[in-house]
Amino acid sequence: MLEISNLTHVYGSGPGAHHALGGVDLKVAQGELVCIVGPSGCGKSTLLRSIAGLLHPTGGTVTLGGKPVERTPDDLAVVFQDYSRSLFPWMSVGDNVALPLRRKGMDRPRRREAATEALEQVGLAGAEGKYPWQLSGGMQQRVSIARALAYRPALMLMDEPFGSVDAQTREDLEDLTLRVRSHHDMTILLITHDIDESVYVGDRVVVLSKAPATVVGDLRVDLPGPRDQITTRENPEFVHLRAEVGRLVRGMRDDPGAAS
Amino acid sequence: MTGRSLFDNRLLCGAIGVAGLFCLAELAGRTGLIDPIVFPLASSVVGRAVGLAADVDFLADVASTLGAWAVGLLLTVLIAVPVGFLLGTLPWVETSLRPVLEFLRPIPSVALIPLALLLFSDRFDMKVAVIVYAAWWPVLINTMYGLKDVDPLAKETLRSFGFGPMAVLWRVSLPSTAPFIATGVRLAAAIALILAISAELLAGGSSGIGTFILEAGSSPDALEYTVAATIWAGAIGVISNSLFTLAERRLFHWHLARTEGAR
């Protein structure tokens, strides 16, 4: 459903130019949850912003559902890392979740209904009337996820969605992501720098090199479901995969002895 | 314990300050430190001020000043906010208008009253024009400043759901800037009152607090009337400021909750 071919992007020009993407190729099938990992500053966010139509890449193409992405696609939602900035403080939680649904031409009662349902799904039933800043960080990120879910996107992009919450909340939100995606027929692209997280959450882990980013690894994760924070993480396959991804991220390829 | 809680109460503390100053002024007059002929007794000024509250002529003057003030302030907001948005969102407009703005801003607004007198034959129009000119600066500057403060990620969030530039302006930039605009309007309200009375004082005319003060000069109790009317001008300023502050707190509690939480 998503096809990226030879995507390049350069910020600025001349000698000071920053080559963020150096020809990324990626295919994502309908219903897949693909995690993209890579070292910090490797251009993961640039990739995400290109898919979302928020920036025009300097080269290559992004095709979503057979159509090239030129502006922001209609059936796409983004969950950003910084929930406190991404949620609107002047609106209640319910209004925050309902706002994007205006784009779908839904009337007010239906928008409300959809918001209530989405908030229930993320475990925030009855929080409609609160304001985002009255909630904890983890709950705010749940609101962002609810906002994306209510929109019923074909593709949900998540940009380091659990990077600003504590470890316990992070695990809860990872499980929440796995749970909601089993309810929706949704393709998810999750960007993270956390190797464990990528293996735990993903059906596939795509590893990017440091900038200019290219795909240096594409691993299928065949872990038994339903996944569980304790048993999945002690599964030998999990341990093996995280080591594999770790090596790729550090640029050590498949030869652990070669690098120091 | 009681002493501490007494001074913790801002309203009570302020009341003590006012009462103290009143007593000092009264004492200075009574003891002859300030000759009551040179400057009237505090008690007689306050008495005169209370009397003015029931004086139909004075109330008509207050209404006249407040009328010009309200129309001026409304026009200010209607002009300054859109212009602020234009300057804040289109960099080339800002760059090309900046020299003009930088030149006009330091000109004392009161200095433009004689010019306004020449341009406007109608006194009310003249007052409103002077008010708009002086009061639009804080609204304009705050609108532009507030727009710069709009979180790019908030805009990007709405864009990611497929909303266009106008929707982003209306649903993110405007609400996000609103608390800054409100602060600008509160400052503008104070300036507008100053300018309304200044224009009346300088240009005379038939009605207004400033006109009342001018005309009081020829009465036998000129000083008492002048000071009493001035006290009312000050009181109106305080009341307007408090009302605006209250409205800001009510409307933009989300802004306060956030900025205070971030400290």
UniProtKB/TrEMBL annotation, chain A:
The keyword Nucleus does not apply. This is ABC transporter. It comes from Planobispora longispora. CDD domains: ABC_NrtD_SsuB_transporters. SMART domains: AAA (SM00382). Keywords: ATP-binding, Nucleotide-binding, Transport. It comes from the Bacteria. Residues 2-235 form the ABC transporter domain. InterPro entries: AAA+_ATPase (IPR003593), ABC_transporter-like_ATP-bd (IPR003439), ABC_transporter-like_CS (IPR017871), ABC_transporter_ATP-bind (IPR050166), P-loop_NTPase (IPR027417). It holds the Pfam family ABC_tran. GO terms for molecular function: ATP binding; ATP hydrolysis activity. PROSITE patterns: ABC_TRANSPORTER_1, ABC_TRANSPORTER_2. The keyword Transmembrane helix does not apply.
From TrEMBL, chain B:
It is a multi-pass membrane protein. One of its GO terms (biological process) is transmembrane transport. It comes from Planobispora longispora. Coiled coil: none annotated. InterPro entries: MetI-like (IPR000515), MetI-like_sf (IPR035906). Belongs to the binding-protein-dependent transport system permease family. Residues 62-244 form the ABC transmembrane type-1 domain. This is Nitrate ABC transporter permease. Its main location: membrane. Keywords: Cell membrane, Membrane, Transmembrane, Transmembrane helix, Transport. It is found in: Cell membrane. The lineage of its organism: Bacteria, Bacillati, Actinomycetota, Actinomycetes, Streptosporangiales. The chain crosses the membrane at residues 66-91, 128-147, 167-185, 192-213, 225-246. GO terms for cellular component: plasma membrane.
